[in-house]
Amino acid sequence: MRQSKFFMPTLKEAPSDAVAESHKLMLRGGYIRQVTAGVYAYLPLGYRVLRKAENIIEEEMENINVPEMMMPHLLPATLWQESGRYEKYGEEMFKLKDRHGRESLLGPTHEETFTEIIAKNLKSYKQMPLALYQIQTKFRDENRPRFGLLRGREFVMLDAYSFAATREQLDEQFEDQKGAFIKIFKRAGVKVHPVIADSGTMGGKNSTEFQAPAAIGEDTIATNENGTYAANLEMAVSIDTFKQEPEDAKELNKVATPDCDSIDKLSKFLNVPATRIVKSILFIADDDKKILVLIRGDKQINEVKLGHVIDADNLREANVTDLKEITGSEKGGVGPINADWADKIIADETVKGLYNVVVGANETDYQFENANLDRDFKVDEFADIRTANEGEPDPVDHQPLKFTTSIEVGHIFKLGTYYTTNMGADFLDNNGKAKPVIMGSYGIGVTRMLSAIVEQHLNEKGGIAWPKEVAPFTIHLIQMKMNDEDQTTLAEKLEKELSAKYDVLYDDRKERPGVKFNDADLVGAPIRITIGRKANEGIVEVKRPTDEKSTEVSVDQLEEILNKELG
Ligand code: ATP
Ligand code: MG
User: Fold this and answer.
1) Which residue from 475, 478, 488, 480 is spatially nearest to 533, judged by alpha carbons?
2) Whole-prediction pTM value?
3) Is the CB–ligand 1 distance for residue 110 below 6 Å?
4) Helix 21-28 to helix 446-457 angle, to the nearest 10 degrees?
5) Which one of 92, 150, 217, 320 is least enclosed by Cβ atoms within 10 Å?
């Protein structure tokens, strides 16, 4: 490709509203342009990277025998009403009406569409295990589209779906997909941790996220040194190392604790450590169930974990009005003693093995001292509902947990039979008995992955070093002087030869070398070949984006070097 004919509108500086470095680079380099909030045009440079990422995905899906297909973007509301997600999916769904007033939507994901096709076209256990995929634009009316391609309202996703007759088949399909995903990310040059994750609204419990550590990530992951444990902070488990020495139970004692609206203030006021206080927080599940949640004073409740224990459609912390009305106390004074109003009391594991603790007395500004589990209050269910803290031992190798911000680039789920039951996708097993198909779903945010690649491969000079399999061009040929005949002859010869094997961008523009080199930093080709003064001697300069300086090589050596670098 001749750069004089290429369209790569570079900018000296990124617009001030771009905060993520990857977003800035893609704007400066002319990879993308925003059309409206969270909606982008992929200019030729950006589109080349996107197509290369898609190619890798296509090859790896082919390797595990998963065929590609294409679903429509425009979907009828009825499909989603059948699965029960039309209302549940919420405001992220782009809804529209056609001229006949029929409700429709733009697909944010395609579980329903695939399940429907299977319901109508798959009849027997003999047709499974089966998996299908597509690479397609999704639409989600995100509340805060931001960071360029990281969180768009229109974005490209790989979505694969698996259909199985048995749990074992699903497990195998899941492992196949996981293996393919790991290869895809490796080839695309994205470092990822497969992590234990929350499965959100997808209706399945077993899920793994692929998290790419990056400076701008919207997620936090907890990992250990050995690489034997990695979890989304939402689900991270840590070992609690605190132990209280056993004590005799003392007499329960009510004390006034004015203005103690935090554990910190209470701890100072009563002169007890936070570990001797049990925090009580009231949650309202499904609008009317009162759930009192207890945790030791030095720990925080993790609402995602709590959500899994409570299993409600919606869960919220009670506000001051609720508290006063239900418990008789405002914030700070709620507690588990005589809490007859509670439908259920759930406690974190940290509440076990404590003696003579402080708990709220269900009266504003009053607490009980010397409260003891079982003697003074009861707990219906113990569970791990606390937020892990950095430095606490991990549950596998007991090493200190390390927290890193990261980007969720992929997410795979064992869905089970949620969709197939709701949508009537049954098959006949080998005894002729009808059973619901068992599903899995597997997604990669392809355009989001591009941001993750850039985040992980930026260099200090403000340029990028693309991993070779996704680089828009693998070789950037730069001719220093366009009116030098020797240079032109050599450049055109190299362009012709190298293009047979590599993606070559030939900078044939009548621009100053400084301009060409600046642009080359933004193209980030794995190999830059500069044709300059020594062209007549058959000598060129070769440089990788990560090299400090370029190296002079004779044209005869090029083939060997390129074979080594690019394969
Ligand atoms: P998030 O928690 O980031 O909103 P999600 O759980 O909604 O993600 P999924 O429904 O699992 O995402 O979608 C599969 C993949 O699509 C995600 O792992 C992510 O890489 C990508 N993705 C999701 N939402 C967006 C978006 N708004 N813009 C770009 N990519 C996205
Ligand atoms: Mg989302």
Assistant:
1) 480
2) 0.89
3) no
4) 100
5) 320
Asked if residue 524 lies in contact with residue 463, where contact means CB atoms within 8 angstroms, the answer is yes
Distances (CA, A) of 457 to 58, 157, 400, 468, 553: 23, 22, 28, 12, 26
3-state SS track over 331-363:
CCCCCCCCCCCCCEEEEEHHHCCCCCEEEECCC
Q: Rounded mean pLDDT of the chain?
A: 95
Q: Name residues whose C-beta falls within 8 Å of residue 230's C-beta, 6 or more positions apart in sequence.
A: 193, 194, 195, 196, 211, 221, 222, 223, 224
Mutational pocket test of ligand 1: of 138, 233, 408, 455, the residue with most ligand atoms within 8 Å of the beta carbon? 408
Distance 392 CA to ligand 2 centre (A): 29
The residue whose C-alpha atom lies closest to atom 14 belonging to ligand 1 is 443
pLDDT tens readout for residues 206-247: 889 999 999 999 999 999 998 889 999 988 999 999 999 999
Residue 487 or residue 548, greater confidence: 487
Torsion angle defined by CA atoms of residues 391, 396, 384 and 368, in that order, rounded to the nearest 10 degrees = -50
CA of 120 to the centre of ligand 1 (A): 28
Max CA separation in the chain (angstroms): 99
Q: Omega before 436 cis (within 30°)?
A: no
The preferred substitution site among 91, 157, 211, 232 for testing ligand 1, maximizing ligand atoms within 8 Å of CB, is 157
> Which residues fall within 8 angstroms of residue 403, CB to CB, at 6 or more apart?
220, 221, 222, 233, 390
Nearest to 79 by CA among 99, 56, 105: 105
Distance CA 96, CA 106 (A): 8
| Stretch 412-420: mean pLDDT | 95
Tokens standing for residue 446: 């392809």
- Report how far ligand 1's centroid is from the alpha carbon of 445 (Å): 6
* The one-letter amino acid at 223: T
